[in-house]
Design a protein that fits this description.
By secondary structure, the protein is of the alpha+beta class. The protein has helices spanning 55-68, 82-85, 88-94, 167-178, 196-220, 235-242, 251-267; strands at residues 11-15, 18-22, 35-39, 44-48, 71-77, 99-102, 119-122, 125-131, 140-144, 149-153, 185-187, 271-274, 277-280. Helix 4 links the parallel strand 10 and strand 11 (185-187). The radius of gyration is 21 Å and the shape is elongated. Its cofactor is Zn(2+). This is Metallo-beta-lactamase superfamily protein.
Length: 286
C-alpha cells in the first residue's frame, strides 16, 4: 500500500529493450495502475501482463507496436489476479495468434503452462521464469538476462508494500528472489527500482519488524480490549495500535496482514487463538 504516488507516464521506454505501458486502472491498491511490459528489440516482442483490459491500455499497446513496427509473439502472465490477466480477451482479439502463458495452478483453456526455469526468448530479450508463491500460489517472476533484472510481479512493488496469501511462503520466495539477480526490479505496480535485491532485503526486514511489533504489542497488554481481557487481541485491535498513523480506510487491508503474521506465529507455537481472539502462548518466554 502507498499513499503519495510518483506520477508515471502512460507509455515509457525504460531501457533499450523494455517499454512500460500502464493498464489505465489506477486505484488504492493498483497504485498508478498495473504495469505491463513490452520486451525485445526486433519485430517479435514479449508482453508481461495484460492489465484489466481497459480500452486505453489496448490502444496504448497498439500505438506502441505501430511505432516500434513490431507485434506480440507471446504474452506471459505473472499471476491470476484480474488486474494482471483481465486484458487477455482484448489482447487475443487484437492479435489472435499470440501464445499465452500462465501458471496452470488456475487452469484456463487455451493457455499454456509456465514451468519453473522456463525460458522465453525474442530478439534482444531472454526471460527465465521462477515460481515464487506468496502473493498468490501461482505467482511467477522473470529474470531478464540482458540486464540482470527481475520482473517482480506483485511480490515486490515500486512503492509501498505488497499483500500476500501466506506470509511464511512469501518470505521464502523473497529470500529466493533476492539471490537471483543483481540489477533493477521492474514491479507489477509503481516505478522501477534501481536496486532490486536491496529493495527485497528491505521488504524482508520490514516483515520481520512487523512481526516483532505484533509480539511486543501483545506483550504490552490490550487496554482497549472489547472483552476486558487484556491478554487477548483481535487482528483489528492490533491494527489500531500498530497502524494508528495510517488512514482508517486502510485498516481492513492492514488487518489481513496482521492475521497472516498471527497465523505464522501460531505455526511456530508462539501464539494461540480461541474464539477469534489471539494471545501469546507464553508471555514470559517472549
Amino acid at each position: 500500500m502507498a499513499t503519495d504516488l510518483v506520477p508515471l507516464p502512460e507509455i515509457e521506454r525504460l531501457s533499450p529493450r523494455c517499454i512500460r505501458i500502464l493498464g489505465g486502472n489506477p486505484s488504492k491498491f493498483a497504485l498508478q495502475g498495473t504495469n505491463t511490459y513490452l520486451l525485445g528489440t526486433g519485430q517479435q516482442r514479449l508482453l508481461i501482463d495484460t492489465g484489466e483490459g481497459k480500452p486505453s491500455w489496448i490502444a496504448a499497446v497498439k500505438k506502441t507496436l505501430e511505432e516500434e513496427r513490431a507485434t506480440i509473439a507471446s504474452a506471459i502472465v505473472t499471476h491470476w489476479h484480474h488486474d494482471h490477466q483481465g486484458g487477455i480477451g482484448q489482447l487475443l482479439e487484437a492479435w489472435p495468434g499470440t501464445k499465452l502463458y500462465k501458471s496452470q495452478k488456475y487452469e484456463e483453456e487455451g493457455q499454456l503452462d509456465i514451468a519453473d526455469g522456463q525460458k522465453f526468448e525474442v530478439e534482444g530479450a531472454c526471460l527465465t521464469a521462477h515460481h515464487t508463491p506468496g502473493h498468490t500460489t501461482d505467482h511467477m517472476v522473470f529474470i531478464l538476462a540482458e540486464e540482470d533484472a527481475m520482473f517482480t510481479g506483485d511480490n515486490v512493488l515500486g512503492q509501498g508494500t505488497a499483500v500476500f496469501e501466506d506470509l511464511a511462503t512469501y518470505l521464502e520466495s523473497l529470500e529466493k528472489m533476492k539471490k537471483l539477480f543483481k540489477g533493477r526490479a521492474y514491479p507489477g505496480h509503481g516505478p522501477v527500482l534501481d536496486d532490486g535485491p536491496g529493495k527485497i532485503a528491505e521488504y524482508i526486514r520490514h516483515r520481520q519488524q512487523r512481526e516483532e511489533q505484533v509480539i511486543q504489542t501483545m506483550r504490552g497488554g490490550n487496554t482497549g480490549s472489547e472483552t476486558g481481557d487484556e491478554d487477548s487481541w483481535t487482528p483489528m485491535e492490533l491494527v489500531k495500535v500498530i497502524y494508528r498513523d495510517i488512514p482508517e480506510s486502510l485498516y481492513p487491508a492492514a488487518a489481513s496482514g496482521v492475521l497472516q503474521i498471527l497465523q505464522k506465529l501460531q505455526r511456530e507455537g508462539k501464539v494461540v487463538v480461541h474464539d477469534d481472539r489471539w494471545r501469546l502462548s507464553d508471555r514470559s518466554a517472549l
